[in-house]
Amino acid sequence: MVSSKTVTTKVTSGSPYQLDNSQVSRASSALLRHIKTRQDEKEESATKKTLIGDNDDDSDEETSLHNEAVWLVLTTKKHVVDKNRLKPGKISIPHSLNASTSLSVCLITADPQRAVKNIVADDAFPQHLSSRIERVIGYSKLKARYQSFESRRQLLAEHDVFLADDRIIMRLVNTLGKIFYKSSKRPIPVRIAEIEKVDGKKVKKDPKKKSKEDDSAFASTAIVAKEIEKALSCAPVQLAPATTAAIRVGSSKFTPEQLAENVEAVVKGLTDKFITKGWRNIKALHIKGANTMAMPIWLASELWVEDGDVVEEAADDVKAVEGDKKSKKRKQIGDDSATTTATKAIEEDKKSKKPKKAATEEDEDLAARKEKLQKQKATALAEGETKTTGGKKKRKSVS
């Protein structure tokens, strides 16, 4: 088991944390070796089946078998809540995930779609890109044609990659539905709109004053081609308002060095652009295959984002909190007795402050009262004896 010390590195300058390249390389090698072993086992079982009976064309299954996706799993300490960071984005990586020449690309654009079709069909547009873009469809036609679940499922199966104009990317969530956004083919944003510049600087437009002409303006052929090629060579990123996200960084066809380089590029892009507080907000980083265990490449040594979030308590307070119920009851009883003692002391002080009579006067009063009581007692006894004697004599005389 890998300890947390071996996958956490602190530096004295710059970012307080960084990836351990040797750890990333070891994890990449082990993961790819494990995926290849599983693929070999599946091939052996598939060969045994073909000996029993002829199968249909399994070219699609073989392609997916040898091109299993590898994911970077990100875990943050706090939820990602910034709406700008939750928008779909992309990170440049050194080794493209879409290098296949037989790649089928669907480009979803803002209206009108005819303008983009003309750009793709232009002679100045690169041939290696136009041959892979099999469909260009506008947003209004997408809504009209693909309303049913079955039609969307068919569209998803027909193409390998979906690119979308960044001006309509947020509207596609409701239009394409969960069939798209639960898969690994979520639309990748691409900037193909015309950008107005003054003195070489981009002019920001007020979204409230935006007109329909702004949506119909597209960039030049060279810029559109450059942006599409850039999007195909990037790793798509779409974070959720949660603490966990997965970003595809490679496939089982990659070498360990290629996978490690892509992982390092994606981690740098996430900490620089997508994660609030950067490294301070990252709890863990893992890599995994589609059906494998996650292998750690970085683990945080603390669970807080800022040092100010940690409150240091006195030792006595900590002991009191960690004590059991009996100790709490004893403490409460002690506090009650102390309170009672203090109350009695206060009352005695109040009494002591009252003015007292002189000692001689008190003694005289007390002696007088005692003497008076003794006289009354003697008188009462004498009267009682007299009544008793008289009563007896009377009874004798009657009898």
Index terms:
399 residues; alpha/beta; Ribulose 1,5 Bisphosphate Carboxylase/Oxygenase; Rossmann fold; 4-stranded antiparallel sheet; 4-stranded parallel sheet; 15 helices; 14 strands; 16% strand; disordered N terminus; disordered C terminus
* Percent in helix: 40-55%
CATH level-4 homologous superfamily of the largest domain: Ribosomal protein L1/L10, domain II
Q: What's the gyration radius in Å?
A: 44 Å
Rounded average pLDDT: 78
According to CATH, the fold-level topology of the largest domain is Rossmann fold
Strand order of the largest sheet: 12-3-13-14
Order of helical and strand elements: EEHHEHEEHHEHHEHHEEEHHEEHEEHHH
CATH class of the largest domain: Alpha Beta
DSSP strand count: 14
Overall tally of structural domains? 3
Task: Give the overall shape.
Answer: elongated
Number of helices: 15
Unreliable parts: 1-6, 56-63, 392-399
Largest sheet: 4 strands, antiparallel
The first-to-last residue Cα distance is 120 Å
Q: Give the CATH architecture of the largest domain.
A: 3-Layer(aba) Sandwich
The chain-level structural class is: alpha/beta
Strand content: 15-25%
